[in-house]
Design goal:
Mean pLDDT: 80
Order of helices and strands: HHEEEEEEHEE
Radius of gyration: 19 Å
Largest sheet: 5 strands, parallel
Strand order of the largest sheet: 1-2-4-6-8
Low-confidence stretches: 1-8
């Protein structure tokens, strides 16, 4: 019989070049100033746990997020599935240049999302990325019409043009 016990070990992570910093929440809200101060050029990921996990740990509520702004010249390359799932107050978002895919359930149940800007670097939108989005009004795309026509949409509902009233090609790179 064989058993394996896995546990978090900050020392073991350091052996692999992984550093960990924790920013505690303040009154059940993200400490954005503390988060900003904790991030430096070596930071590769910011993970915000939405579930409580432990009695003593506050849960992160997406109820107060109305807009998400990425830092100019962000080095972000990937956004995980369901990252903005159920952000019902999210009204506007401009995804950063550099990400290549809008993954599954990214904006699902974001019932008040009205405006999205998609960078030229995106070439794939997963089938349920915009599931149950009912108020999308405007989509801006920062590439060319040729780039848009080469997109990989996993199904018709993956194309935000099927949901929005207005679609604009910004073509900022030409």
């Amino acid at each position: 019989e064989m058993s394996v016990r896995l546990s978090y070990s900050e020392e073991k992570d350091k052996d692999f070049g992984v550093n960990y910093r924790q920013v505690d929440m303040i009154n059940s809200r993200v400490d954005f100033e503390g988060l900003k101060n904790a991030i430096d050029d070596t930071c590769k990921a910011v993970i915000i746990q939405r579930s409580k996990g432990y009695d003593w740990r506050d849960t992160f509520s997406v109820d107060y997020i109305g807009e998400i702004i990425f830092e100019e010249n962000s080095q972000l390359k990937e956004i995980s599935n369901s990252t903005f799932y159920e952000c019902t107050k999210l009204e506007s978002i401009s995804l950063p240049e550099g990400i290549s895919e809008i993954p599954y359930y990214l904006f699902s149940y974001c019932t008040n999302l009205k405006t999205i800007t998609i960078p030229k670097s995106v070439s794939k939108i997963s089938e349920v990325a915009f599931y149950l989005i009912k108020n999308l009004e405007t989509v801006y795309y920062n590439g060319t019409i040729e780039d848009w026509c080469n997109f990989e949409f996993e199904d018709l509902r993956a194309n935000p043009m099927s949901l929005a009233s207005h679609f604009y090609i910004k073509n900022e790179n030409n």
